[in-house]
Design a protein that fits this description.
By secondary structure, the chain is of the alpha/beta class. It has two domains: 170 residues, Ribosomal Protein S5, domain 2, CATH 3.30.230.10; 94 residues, no CATH class. The chain has ten helices and nine strands. It has a four-stranded mixed beta sheet. β1 and β2 form a beta hairpin. α2 packs across α3. The protein is elongated, with a radius of gyration of 25 Å.
Length: 299
């Protein structure tokens, strides 16, 4: 009996949980089983991982052995195809293709194609943040997302293109060639269209509104929310607020930071701008109270 453990991260919203991917290769009824509250996309990873290993000219033990993969903790729901790489590495370590000691303090994130190539996944930054907080010092990710993962300080990031390259990196052998990893499919329904126009925006360009500008500066300095109320033309344009409201790209403890990469529609937004929400210019008190009539005090 041979058991090996690789590590990945499960996301619950924007909160990451470190997951031990344990592979057991032993005698018994031939087959591959995934256990640990996996969803359908993750359960289909059995076929993806098998074909990726075989097409990478590596040894797949499932033809003559029983392969059992546990994603622990078993009570935590797990979803997504980003577990593929960790499952494949754990199986290869269990069969002797890799040294299990090379997997220590390392996390593996990425989806596998049938030819053994890596595919991009969403939510890499919150996963790497969670892994870093739990003692992981090295992470393997698809090549296009290495820059995103490198935002986490004190983390060694290896952005690779295929399973064979991952094996080569773990065994210190020659790095094989592989085609580039395609970006995440689809385009976001939201995108930032005016980045260039912020280069020359300055609060000093606004005439008047001294009390409003002072309130915006104080709110930005303290990191507070800001509500601007008044008739049309009496508030600061949102473009000028972009200049004030921002968070540093290395402040990994900012509560908004892990959320943005996890949301597909916002992935094209830059990491150095804070979000805003612009409401209607005119909002009456009854509408704010949530009813048509004038709010009445109960006796």
């Amino acid at each position: 009996m041979a058991v090996a453990t690789a590590r990945c991260v499960a996301l619950a919203g924007a909160v990451g949980h470190l997951v031990d991917v344990q592979a057991d290769v032993s005698s018994g009824q031939v087959g591959t089983t995934l256990v640990g509250r996996v969803d359908s996309a993750l359960n289909e990873g059995r076929d993806r991982v098998r074909m990726a290993i075989e097409n990478s000219l590596l040894t797949w033990p499932g033809s003559t052995k029983r392969v059992t993969v546990l994603l622990a903790p078993a009570a935590l729901p797990k979803s997504g195809a980003h577990f593929d790489l960790a499952i494949a590495v754990a199986i290869l370590a269990a069969t002797g293709e890799l040294d299990p000691r090379s997997l220590e303090e390392t996390a593996f994130i990425g989806e596998l194609a049938l030819d053994g190539g890596l595919r991009s996944v969403t939510g890499v930054l919150p996963m790497v943040l969670a892994a870093s907080q739990r003692g992981i010092r090295c992470v393997f990710v698809p090549e296009p997302q290495a820059r995103e993962a490198a935002l986490v300080p004190d983390m060694t990031v290896l952005g690779l293109r295929s399973l064979r390259q991952v094996v080569a990196a773990l065994t210190d052998s020659e790095m094989p060639e592989a085609p580039p990893v395609p970006p995440i499919s689809g385009s976001g329904f939201l995108s930032w269209r005016g980045a260039a126009r912020l280069e020359e925006v300055d609060m000093a360009d606004l005439v008047g509104l001294e009390d409003v500008k002072y309130a915006a500066e104080v709110a930005a300095a303290g990191g507070h929310h800001l509500l601007l109320d008044g008739p049309k033309g009496s508030c600061i344009p949102s473009a000028h607020l972009w200049v004030l409201y921002f968070f540093h790209e290395h402040s990994e403890d900012h509560p908004l930071r892990p959320v943005r990469p996890a949301v597909k529609g916002l992935r094209h937004f830059g990491l150095n701008r804070a979000p805003d929400r612009v409401g209607r210019a005119v909002r009456r008190c009854p509408r704010l109270a949530g009813r048509r009539g004038v709010p009445r005090q109960r006796s």
